[in-house]
């Protein structure tokens, strides 16, 4: 098998992984406080408030729990995608998470919102990454018994 997917899959893995970890750092306040340019939340409380907007049928504590689950999933997906370990599974999981997020945005904040933030594009990229046959420059490739 040729390595025609080597560089694109590496770029896609890194771009997706970084795009999952940066919002986590934002909601933890590591990238700066609320109100700082290019900071969406700046703290956990603001993030939970936004989560409650996307899940208005939940009370604030339940929204906080769902935000925590989503945050943990994003951290796991980011690490797996960046390192290239369990890449296909991470790409499938990140697709499901992203599409769920995008649908909640579309339903509860309007159809334009997920397109403004390229949520469906990221979901499509995750799905496309899940279809790549070989993840060269990855832990998966290193651990595989069959190098192509």
Helix content: 55-70%
**β-sheet strand percentage:** under 5%
Order of helices and strands: HHHHHHH
Structural class: mainly alpha
Chain-wise SSE layout:
Elements: H1 6-27, H2 44-54, H3 60-83, H4 87-109, H5 112-116, H6 119-130, H7 139-143
Helix pairs in contact: 1-3, 1-6, 2-3, 3-4, 4-6
Labels describing this entry:
148 residues; mainly alpha; 7 helices; 0% strand; elongated
Provide a brief overview of the structure.
With 148 residues, the protein is mostly helical.
Q: What does it look like?
A:
Keywords: Membrane, Transmembrane, Transmembrane helix. By secondary structure, the chain is mainly α. It has one domain (6-140). 69% of the residues lie in helices and 0% in strands. The protein has 7 helices and no strands. The protein has helices at residues 6-27, 44-54, 60-83, 87-109, 112-116, 119-130, 139-143. The longest helix is centred in the middle third of the chain and has 24 residues, at 60-83.
């Amino acid at each position: 098998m040729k390595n025609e997917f080597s560089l694109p899959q590496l770029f896609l893995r890194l771009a997706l992984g970084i795009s999952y970890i940066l919002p986590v750092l934002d909601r933890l306040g590591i990238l700066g406080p609320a109100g700082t340019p290019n900071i969406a939340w700046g703290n956990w409380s603001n993030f939970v408030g936004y989560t409650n907007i996307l899940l208005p049928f939940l009370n604030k504590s339940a929204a906080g729990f769902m935000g925590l689950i989503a945050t943990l999933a994003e951290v796991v997906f980011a690490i797996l995608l960046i390192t290239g370990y369990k890449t296909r599974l991470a790409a499938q999981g990140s697709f499901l998470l992203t599409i769920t997020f995008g649908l909640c945005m579309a339903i509860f904040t309007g159809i334009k919102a997920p397109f403004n933030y390229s949520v469906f594009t990221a979901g499509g990229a995750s799905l496309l990454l899940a279809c790549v046959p070989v993840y060269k420059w990855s832990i998966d490739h290193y651990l595989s018994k069959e190098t192509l």
